[in-house]
């Protein structure tokens, strides 16, 4: 028997699909809730039954994308625990973002939206808690150096730069995504990791904890989107 909530969830996904399509086509500032409702073939009031504001709607859209990403990361670590090494994980994260149009757009053309979402209380609290746990796991298993000043800030600043700066203003030929991902991995490896990589059993233990964090993120994300 079909769940009573199923039609509501299907409608929510249809609205989010419309929002994603319009965001990619026009950018956040030019898209209205009325535009989204029209594209999803629902009334404007129906959109507000799911999310109270335009910002909440786009937060739900990003969270839905995030669910797919964290599930992909968890599976990656199950298949290859060595991917938990910061430089390898940074490379995989960069490529995943680059190959997802919604995430790529937010990091390149809709930075204002990304900033607003990052500061929005529900998303900020989830992400800050997850980030704190990831760093604690990395420190617990000695995946990171201990002599880098302001390590967390420095890592985030370095990695963030690779997402925002595409290299087209350098004297070198434009780099493709793989080359940029390799450059990011090199930077993270040289700047933030110890000279000797941890043994396989340590990487496996760290990967298990990362998988647990990813798995725990999904239920609250789904609750925020659909409840």
Automatic annotation (TrEMBL):
Source organism (scientific name): Nonomuraea diastatica
GO function term, MF aspect, one: transcription cis-regulatory region binding
PROSITE patterns: HTH_TETR_1, HTH_TETR_2
Keyword field: DNA-binding, Transcription, Transcription regulation
Keyword DNA-binding among record annotations: yes
Keyword check for GTP-binding: no
Endpoints of the signal sequence: none
Residue ranges of the annotated DNA-binding region, renumbered to this chain: 32-51
Name this polypeptide is given: TetR/AcrR family transcriptional regulator
């Amino acid at each position: 028997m079909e769940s009573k909530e199923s039609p509501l969830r299907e409608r929510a996904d249809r609205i989010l699909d419309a929002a994603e399509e319009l965001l990619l086509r026009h950018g956040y500032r030019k898209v209205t809730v009325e535009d989204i409702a029209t594209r999803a073939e629902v009334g404007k009031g129906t959109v507000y039954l799911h999310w109270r504001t335009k910002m909440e709607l786009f937060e739900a859209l990003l969270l839905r994308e995030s669910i797919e990403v964290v599930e992909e990361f968890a599976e990656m670590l199950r298949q290859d625990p060595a991917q938990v090494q910061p430089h390898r994980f940074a490379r995989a994260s960069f490529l995943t973002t680059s190959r997802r149009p919604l995430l790529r757009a937010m990091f390149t053309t809709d930075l204002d939206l990304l900033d607003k979402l990052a500061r929005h209380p529900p998303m900020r609290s989830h992400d800050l808690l997850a980030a704190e746990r990831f760093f604690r796991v990395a420190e617990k298993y000695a995946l990171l150096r201990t002599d880098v000043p302001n390590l967390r800030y420095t890592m985030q600043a370095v990695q963030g730069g690779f997402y925002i700066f595409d290299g087209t203003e350098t004297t070198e030929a434009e780099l493709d995504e793989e080359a940029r991902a390799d450059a990011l991995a090199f930077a993270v490896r040289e700047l933030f990791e110890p000279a000797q990589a941890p043994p396989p059993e340590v990487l496996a233990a760290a990967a298990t904890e990362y998988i647990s964090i990813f798995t725990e993120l999904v239920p609250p994300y789904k609750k925020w989107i659909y409840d």
